Each structure stands twice: as structure tokens, then as C-alpha cells.
Amino acid sequence: MLSRDYSINQLCDFMGVSRSGYYKWKKHKPSSRDIDREEMIKMVSNVHGDHLTHGYRWTAAFIRINFKYSFSDNYAYKCFRYLGIKSETKHQVHYRRRKDRDKYPNLIFSTWETVDRPKQVIVSDMMVFRFWIFYFEVTFYFDVFTKEILSWKLAERRGCRDQYIDGLADVIELLKGCTEPTIIHTDQGSVYASVAYNELIKDTIIVRSMSRAGKPTDNPVNEALNGWVKEELLLDFKLERCRTRDEVLALLGRYVKFYNEQRPCWAIGYETPNNYRRRFYKGELEHKNTFENRVLSAEPKFVRKRRKQAHLEDNA
User: Fold this and answer.
1) What are the strands, taking DSSP E only, across 66-158?
2) In the prediction, which pLDDT does 1 show?
3) Cβ atoms of residues 172 and 205 within 8 Å
4) Where are the domains of the chain?
5) Do 272 and 263 meet the contact criterion of CB atoms below 8 Å apart?
6) pLDDT < 50 regions, the chain
7) What is the pLDDT of residue 101?
8) Which of 74, 153, 200, 215 could be bridged to 163 by S-S, CB 3.0 to 4.6 A?
């Protein structure tokens, strides 16, 4: 008897309850709520056993309709978790390894500041404008060094692929006579990864580079320029006032001329892109030769900075 009491005392101490509370719990009868819970769990188990292909939301709806119970999706989810069950399917989900999704490697990562000459790295992306009754897709090609718009194309219709390829053809024409390789960096959009798009660069000096899937930070130059271009077109050039496609084309043409020849750009010391390019070829800008010596790393800059700072603090 003493040993039994002693074990109960130990149990009560371990559970953080009083001895009287323990005996009260031991003698209590299941409440109606406990009985309902057991019935609900049994009902979920039975419905799932008869309909293995459906998940907890369908099961909850089935119980509400056929058994007239007030049964929430969340409660059904908890029952599924408690029972350790889930919907079943014969369809196999095939995952490809991460590296297999990258058709072209990322040749830049976070080394954008090392680009040291015009037409060394060109970036491209598509921009969408929705206003009035219009939906427009515009594809730009930017020079990373000068921030110049090298080509722009307006889609003929929604989902059109021609503007990507026509813009690339313009870039190839601009690169005629160049002997040093040019990297064209894009995201993993279906057109940029397509055979038709990449067939155009065969037998050229162009090398393809792609951002990682789901990593817009792998193309910060294009993302930043897209933001500025969109704001200026809508707020400064009043793109939303256009009422015909021809008006949109004319306004885009005026904006590109303004952007390249008149607009000061902070990233190049408040020079205009065209003037910055001319100054480089005149020899007024230092030829740093930093791009060839870049060190590629998928690790973000802020992580490297924090690690370096931590190392300095540990050695202080």
C-alpha cells in the first residue's frame, strides 16, 4: 500500500497536479463533449475508409450534407491529423532535381558591380501595363554597365512571344563587329528557355545566363530599372491617358529617347546612359577589368558581410 501511494505521489509530482485532483479525474465520467468527439473521429475514419481519394475538406462537406452535423473544415483537418490519414491517389508526383531545372547556369549571381564595359552583360525581362481597356506587354533589353535601353518591343497580343525574339534579333544586330563575349541574363521564363529563342544566338558571341528559379534577386539590375521605368511612364509620361495602340507606341518611343539621352541615372553618377557609353569609349572612364576576376557565389552579400563582421568581432 505504501509503495503504491508513493508511486501515485511521484506521478502527481511529475504531472504537476494534486493528489485529490488526480483521484477526481480518475473517477470522472466522460462528458458529452468527449463522447461527441469520439463519435466525430469515428465518423471521419469511416467516411475516409469509404472514400480514400478525398481530403479533409471534402470529408467535412460530406458529413455536413449527409449526416446533418455542424462540422467545420478545421475540425476535420484536426481529425485527419489525429488519425494520421490523408487522401490517396494513384497519380505520382515527379520532382526533378533542382539542378535539372536550370537550362543555363547563373554566370553572375551577386557580382553585378564587377561589370566593367558596355555590352558585356545585357539583361531582359517583360513588363506588364494594365490601364483603361488595355493590357500591354513590353520587353526591354538593358545594358548593365551603361543602364541603356538597347531594344524594346511591344507585344502584338497578350501572351505573344515575338517581342522577346525580335528584341534579341535587335541585340544581335547591335553586337555585330564586337569580338568580346556578351552575356545575356534572364529569368527562367518559358520564352527565354525556348529552343526558338536560343537558336538565334548560335554562332554569335552571346553566352546565356539565367537566374535561379524563384530568385528575382538574381537579376537586381533589371528589377530596379523595371520599377523606375514603370513609375515614370505612368506618373511622368501619363501613359494611362493613351487611348489607342499607336499612342502607346509613340509615347514609349519618346520615353526611350528621354531615358537614354536626357534622364540622369543615379547608378552611373547621374550621367545619361548614352553619354556614359561615349565617355567610356573616349577613355574618360577607368578600365577596371574586374568582371573577368569575379568570384561566383550563390551566397547573398548580406550573409557574407555578417560573417565577415562576426569574424572581425571574434578576433577583436
Assistant:
1) 121-131, 134-143, 149-154
2) 39
3) no
4) 2-83, 101-310
5) yes
6) 1-5
7) 57
8) 153
Q: What is the pLDDT of residue 89?
A: 79
Q: Cα separation of 137 and 153, whole Å?
A: 8
Q: What is d(CA 174, CA 121) in angstroms, rounded to the nearest whole number? A: 13
Q: What average pLDDT does the chain have?
A: 88
CA angle 81, 28, 36 (to 5 degrees): 40
CA atoms of 226 and 234, how far apart (whole Å): 12
Provide the grid cell at 266: 543615379
Q: What is the largest CA-CA distance in the chain?
A: 102
| Residues facing 140 on adjacent strands | 125, 152
Angle at 299 between CA 295 and CA 304, to 5 degrees: 85
Picking from 190, 238, 180, the residue whose alpha carbon sits closest to that of residue 213 is 190
Contact call for residues 138 and 126 (beta carbons, < 8 A): yes
> Which DSSP category does 29 fall into?
P
Question: Do residues 208 and 172 touch, judged by C-beta distance below 8 A?
Answer: no
- Cα separation of 313 and 316, whole Å? 5
Report the alpha-carbon distance of residue 171 to residue 162 in Å, rounded.
14
Overall fold of domain 101-310? Nucleotidyltransferase; domain 5 (3.30.420)
